[in-house]
Amino acid sequence: MLTRHLRFRTPGKLLSSRQVLDKSLTWVKGNHPLPCQYQQIQFPLEEVMRLRDLPTLESPETHTDTSTSTSKPPSAQADTPVGTVTLVGAGPGDPELLTLKAVRALEQAKLALYDHLVSPAVLDFLPPGAERIYVGKEASRHTLPQTDIARLMIRLARAGQSLVRLKGGDGYIFGRGGEEAQALAEAGVPFRVIPGLTAAQGAAASTGIPLTHRDHADTLVLATGHRRADQQLDLDWAMLARRHQTVALYMGVANLPEICQQLMAHGLPAHTPAALIEKATLPDERCVTGSVADLPGLAREHHIRPPALILIGDVIAARRQPVK
């Protein structure tokens, strides 16, 4: 292994890796990284030689490559066949909920880029020799910015490597899979998409809460409860507060008090049933039920932490606990 010292750009400042070892960016192949902000980045030597000019941590405008002694000539680069990127939905966590197509893609993979919400049991489907690159994002802690993840996939594919991009749930449902597919298409990189079971489906089935029910809900709304940095949570509150529907809110635990307050302010009765499902489909899954009015207090009392899904609607009254 060779440790490569890179420079990391933060707002208004360019830092070397020596200056930021106690902050948060890890890129460690073959191991799930520790939750720290910036670390040295380790690659096999041949990866460094091939990807030493990867412009993922600095903008293309500021990046320069001063070492060209081992670069491939343009003719060799042009002759390299472009790899294919497979965007795979890893489902809500339980590996047995993977699709057969996803399992086949994982079993054949030589390189995988995976997110924070991909469970270790899902990663076990990768061959022992497959390289793993963690590019996960947690609240306020991003291993790589989204644009850099896309650049990395494009760079690897243009170097001739096919890879699996593994995302929790379904990549096209609040997983930014659409953004990555768009970036790949614009770069001329071939890609395929394998859908996954989204968190709302997994949570509903695992906890016995139907998402639709003829007596309670004829509409299902999937929404994000996450705000962009420095922006207000700007949702269509009047639409979300309608009766006779089920609302599933992703990534909303941090904003739960505001979500519940806004829904009640826009006409949703305070006694409307609501639920929080933490780590849906996993062995340590927890489900807390109550009303819209008392859900924030219940979240504090039970120390609910992400990943957790918020369900709101009368369907929660129809809950029947399935056999595990």
Quick overview of this protein structure:
The chain has 324 residues and is α/β, with parallel strands linked by helices.
Write up this protein.
It is a single chain. With 324 residues, this protein is an alpha/beta fold. 24% of the residues lie in helices and 21% in strands. It has ten helices and 16 strands. The chain has helices at residues 45-51, 74-79, 100-107, 120-123, 146-158, 177-186, 199-207, 237-240, 256-265, 295-301; strands at 2-4, 7-10, 13-16, 41-43, 85-89, 111-114, 131-134, 137-138, 141-142, 163-167, 191-194, 220-224, 246-250, 273-278, 286-291, 308-312. Strands 7-6-10-5-11 form a five-stranded parallel β-sheet, sandwiched between helices. The chain is elongated and about 65 Å long. The chain starts with a strand and ends in a 12-residue tail after the last strand. Residues 1-76 have low confidence and may be disordered.
Helix-strand topology string:
EEEEHHEHEHEEEHEHEHEHEHEEHE
| Estimated radius of gyration | 22 Å
Write down how many β-strands occur, each being a DSSP E stretch of 2 or more residues: 16
Q: How many angstroms separate the termini?
A: 44 Å
What is the strand and helix layout of this fold?
Blueprint: E1 2-4, E2 7-10, E3 13-16, E4 41-43, H1 45-51, H2 74-79, E5 85-89, H3 100-107, E6 111-114, H4 120-123, E7 131-134, E8 137-138, E9 141-142, H5 146-158, E10 163-167, H6 177-186, E11 191-194, H7 199-207, E12 220-224, H8 237-240, E13 246-250, H9 256-265, E14 273-278, E15 286-291, H10 295-301, E16 308-312
Parallel strand pairs: 5-10, 5-11, 6-7, 6-10, 12-13
Antiparallel strand pairs: 1-4, 2-3, 8-9, 13-16, 14-15, 14-16
